[in-house]
Amino acid sequence: MLGLAIILAFSFARCASAIKDPAPDWPWFGEPLNNLTVSVGREAIFTCIVENLGPYKVAWLRVDTQTILTIASHVITKNHRIAVTHSGHRTWSLHIKDTRETDRGWYMCQVNTDPMSSNTGFLEVVVPPDILDDPTSTDMVVREGSNVTLRCAATGTPEPTVTWRREAGGTIILSSWHEVASIEGPEMEIIRVTRLHMGPYLCIASNGVPPTVSKRIVLVVHFPPMIRIENQLVGAYEGQTIVLECHGEAYPKPITYWTKPTNDTIVNDNNYRVETVTMGYKSIMRLTVNSVRAQDFGAFKCAATNSLGETDGKIKIYRITAPSTTRRPNARRDSKKLWKGDSPHEKEIAGKEEDAISVDEEIDEEPINFHSSTASSIFHRHFTNLESLAMTILFRVALRLFS
Ligand SMILES: *[C@@H]1O[C@H](CO)[C@@H](O)[C@H](O)[C@H]1NC(C)=O
Ligand SMILES: *[C@@H]1O[C@H](CO)[C@@H](O)[C@H](O)[C@H]1NC(C)=O
Ligand SMILES: *[C@@H]1O[C@H](CO)[C@@H](O)[C@H](O)[C@H]1NC(C)=O
Questions:
Q1: Which SMART domains does the UniProt record give (predicted)?
Q2: Domain total of the chain
Q3: How far is CA 223 from CA 64, 108, 273, 280, 401, in A?
Q4: Are residues 292 and 382 in the same domain?
Q5: CB of 149 shorter than 6 A to ligand 2
Q6: Contacts from 14-17 at CB under 8 Å and sequence distance 24+?
Q7: In this predicted model, what pLDDT tens digit does every residue of 285-338 receive, in sequence order?
Q8: Which one of 70, 236, 319, 333 has the minimum C-beta count within 10 Å?
């Protein structure tokens, strides 16, 4: 009975190890060698299971270089990173410590039968992505309208893919009708760069081996100042407080100032207050006249200057009659109708008002058009936001048309 079992076991051994005409007492492999994938620097362990080793010995070899690494429990190679362990006679493990990329390749577990019998396994050494400093772009400063290419040189095994994104999210506007959330590839080219491209970008390198890495590259777009004014004509009466506003776009950040109708530059004092609110390349220049005086009727100028140019805008103040106390209730009702709520009349009335403004002398006699400065500034802000949105959309459309 026992004899039969042994015979069966050996026939099985023949099949499993695929050894040609083995002697009945030959060893055989318990299971195929597994392929290994390790991150560079980690330890790789191949395990070879040999049944019925008997008097034979297990050796580990590196196939590519035909070198013997270990024989039985002895390390033959001078490579200090190689070790061999065994558990009884059956399980033999090759340890490759602190793996390097050069360790990638085929390894063989060999038994010195004649002919020899062996099993091979592949060691894959993967390397997390890295971004090379030197060939990768640093922060860039370009003129609006020029072409720009940002580069990101990534290494790693397998070869990483590079993705470009805006750090703040949002889309990247490409030349034609293209607006994308991200761009793949080691280079990001922008044809005819605009101020809308300004900001920090991330190039992200990933290859499935953690950690993913990224580099931040800031694109700075230089352009000369531009000034936009919503209300170029402002009616005011003596003693009234008014706020004048100019919208500027410029980069680098411009020097801004206001001038009086006498062409003198305005400095902050009891009657004039100048402030500029800057957000990125946009700024709002605001001049508050606490109490309009006779010398204020005329053209105020807001001006912006940077290294690329200079520009200014004019706002004309014209005289209107101060509201009398008896007329006040009337005027108030007008204000309500004009400025509160979102009635469709609003635009119509605003349009009418502009028509009226173009005839200065008549307005002087028509105090009906009076509205309080508070109402005016509410309207102003409202109108400004709408128009600035419209301008942005127009600008984008224009960009696409001309690129
Ligand atoms: C090991 O990888 C090779 C190709 O690299 C493949 O042919 C072989 O089947 C793999 N062995 C195992 C046990 O997965
Ligand atoms: C930018 O690139 C476009 C398309 O490749 C080309 O036609 C244009 O001349 C380039 N402009 C500059 C300033 O190099
Ligand atoms: C202010 O300067 C403009 C030209 O910049 C000139 O036409 C105007 O007469 C000047 N006004 C005064 C009061 O000097």
A1: IG, IGc2
A2: 3
A3: 60, 65, 28, 13, 20
A4: yes
A5: no
A6: 17/117
A7: 999 999 999 999 999 999 999 999 999 999 999 999 988 765 444 433 333 333
A8: 333
Q: Which of 35, 37, 49, 108 to mutate to test the pocket of ligand 1 (most atoms within 8 A of CB)?
A: 35
239 and 375, same domain (yes or no): yes
* CA–CA distance, 125 with 39 (Å, rounded to integer): 6
Ligand 3: nearest atom to the Cα of 261:
13
Binding site membership of 262 for ligand 3 (Cβ less than 6 Å): yes
Residues 118 and 176 in one domain: no
CATH number at residue 287: 2.60.40.10
- Same domain for 213 and 339: no
Q: Which parts of the chain have pLDDT scores under 50?
A: 1-21, 327-391, 393-395, 397-399, 401-403
| pTM, two decimal places | 0.67
Q: Which of 102, 126, 150 is the last residue of a domain?
A: 126
| Ligand 1 atom nearest to 124, measured from its CA | 5
- Domain around 30: 2-126
What angle (nearest 5°) sits at the alpha carbon of residue 383, between those of residues 378 and 386?
130
Q: Note whether 367 and 321 are within 8 A (CB).
A: yes
Gap between the Cα atoms of 40 and 44, Å rounded: 10
Do 105 and 66 lie in a common domain? yes
Residue where one domain finishes, among candidates 197, 222, 247:
222
Cα-to-centroid distance, 36 and ligand 3 (Å):
83
Give the closest residue to 188 by CA, choosing from 225, 227, 215, 223: 215
- State pLDDT tens for residues 345-376: 333 333 333 333 333 333 333 333 333 333 33
Examine the domain organization and report whether 341 and 310 are in the same domain: yes
